[in-house]
């Protein structure tokens, strides 16, 4: 549920009683907020503060898709109560968009778990463009008058953010393109690694790019047309790798956002790519599926 607040008193009044109730129910409590707010909450809880777990928001929310994996891992098989508050300052437009999207996806990712989550919005600091999506991404709102249903809530698979439907920009004229089939997957991995090294990518990141491109290309071979093309270029401090599959389709409403079950034999390609890359874009147009991977040149 979304929890907007406008003062330290409001923050404590909305969170402390619910933390105590969660502890009384035997729930594991995780608090992800800045050190000042965490200290205030611990002081208000007294001895109960020893029973709460905490994580620094800078690390937890740094990569939205790894955040999804962390929540999934933390809450699996546990009755959990979570207070989460990311910092929105200093994020690029793209980073804000993807964090907003992942806040929505959490509804689907954790739907089967026994978790109660409070998502905090400090009205004094959170940008209006982010506040707009509080009622959109959360089915329940919590305020001084208690809990109310959000009339503006949108299911994660129906959420459309800015740039979601915009066509992908064309690759630059000097981009390198490589056609592949099932027989060329090993050579494709070598091609991606060689291109990244020549471009000057940090060696610690090259493996992530090779794995991601290989997973997507393998999906094209196994579930698409059986062949495709990979195009690579460098721009704005990142390496972009696009895999185009003429027989591909998007039949998953949340492609790569929900982790596959451990026993599942498929569904790992996009999930892995979202974990390893900074951004994964997908477009399905005129029978062509384009998966565009973005990864910074340096860590």
Helix content: 25-40%
Which ranges are low-confidence, i.e. pLDDT below 50, for 5 or more consecutive residues? none
| Spatial strand sequence of the major β-sheet | 1-5-4-2-3
- State the order of secondary-structure elements, H for helix, E for strand: EHEHEHHEHEHHEEEHHEEHEE
Count of runs of 4 or more consecutive helical residues: 10
Query: Could you give the distance between the termini?
Result: 34 Å
**What's the average pLDDT?**
94
Number of strands: 12
**Which class do the helix and strand fractions yield?**
alpha/beta
Gist of the model:
This protein has 299 residues and is of the alpha/beta class.
Give an overview of the whole structure:
This protein has 299 residues and is of the alpha/beta class. It has helices at residues 8-24, 35-45, 57-60, 64-75, 93-109, 128-131, 134-137, 185-199, 203-223, 269-276, and strands at 2-5, 28-32, 52-55, 80-84, 115-122, 140-143, 146-149, 176-181, 227-235, 238-245, 279-285, 288-296. The strands form 3 sheets. The protein has a 5-stranded parallel sheet. The chain has a 5-stranded antiparallel sheet with strand order 8-9-10-12-11, with helices on one face. A hairpin with a 2-residue loop joins strand 6 and strand 7 (146-149). It is elongated, with a radius of gyration of 21 Å.
